[in-house]
Specification:
Length: 283
């Protein structure tokens, strides 16, 4: 089985506590999304896939019309709507994560943004550096802006020595990071869970289908060809749905964690830039 990338981590001690309230606030919203997806899947299974027009025998729904893919999927049994609900949930959270993470990337490449800030700080133009953060409008820009505001405050502070000022800037950056990182990682657990569970659900449906097939083969006299075919269809449909859902979940999870890795690297780079700049310019 393909492996998931390790979820990005932050060394900030307060990140877990900072993210916890957000997760609690979104619990019911996530629950509603999952419930709606499962509900839609059940409706599609019963009224679209299970439409009597898709079957030779109409209301009994035991003999799919040849070549009718919807009837074939319906024959997969009760595991099919569960897998469909899982797939719809996956798509919902892929869209949600894509919108959030792409917004967090900002309007400017992280490395290019840091270079512009470095240039402004080298010229001791803190206000212009803050303006660059507003233009970037992403997670890196938000953290850098918080650090620059403290940076500007420390320039005019005559009560602290350089090391204390740098420590205050670092603390401000850590607090800003603790607010940004949980937002990036939120709901990735749904993708990783679906990646693991979808395959198991498909396997469960496969086992049920094979049981039906062997029961048909074990009947006295001639095996029931219809029951045998239905059992095999149930096994294959559930296998296909489970594997495909898991495949998309793994791809999405690794794609998003790669982007988050890049954003967190930019955040770390911005913090290093600020402390080095302050130490070099205001000893």
């Amino acid at each position: 089985m393909a492996e998931l990338k390790a979820a990005p981590k932050t060394s900030t001690a307060g990140s877990a506590s900072a993210g916890k309230p957000r997760n609690n606030n979104n619990f019911w919203l996530n629950f509603i999304i999952v419930a709606v997806c499962v509900g839609v899947a059940i409706l599609l299974y019963n009224f679209v896939l299970g439409n009597p027009d898709n079957f030779i025998d109409g209301a009994t729904k035991e003999k799919p019309k040849p070549g009718n893919i919807m009837a074939t999927m319906y024959s997969g049994g009760f595991v099919v709507p569960i897998l469909m609900g899982t797939l719809f949930t996956l798509l919902s959270f892929i869209i949600e994560r894509a919108l959030t993470i792409m917004s967090a990337k900002g309007k400017m490449d992280g490395s290019q943004f840091v270079r512009k800030v470095q240039y402004e700080l080298a010229n001791k133009n803190v206000k212009a550096a803050i303006a660059e953060c507003d233009k970037q409008s992403g997670s890196v820009g938000n953290v850098m802006r918080a650090g620059l505001l403290k940076y500007d405050e420390m320039i005019g502070n005559s009560d602290l020595d350089t090391d204390q000022k740098v420590a205050n800037i670092q603390k401000e950056i850590e607090e800003a990071t603790a607010l940004e990182v949980p937002m990036l990682e939120k709901n990735l657990v749904f993708l990783s869970t679906i990646a693991s569970c979808a395959t198991l659900l498909g396997l469960f449906g496969t086992v049920l289908g094979m049981i039906r097939s062997f029961q048909a083969m074990g009947q006295a006299g001639a095996p029931d060809a219809g029951a045998l075919a239905n059992g095999i269809s149930e096994a294959l449909i559930n296998t296909a749905l489970g594997i495909s859902t898991s495949f998309f979940a793994i791809i999405a999870y690794n794609f998003f964690t790669t982007i988050i890795d890049g954003i967190t690297y930019g955040i770390d780079e911005s913090g290093f830039t600020l402390t080095q700049s302050f130490t070099g310019n205001y000893k």
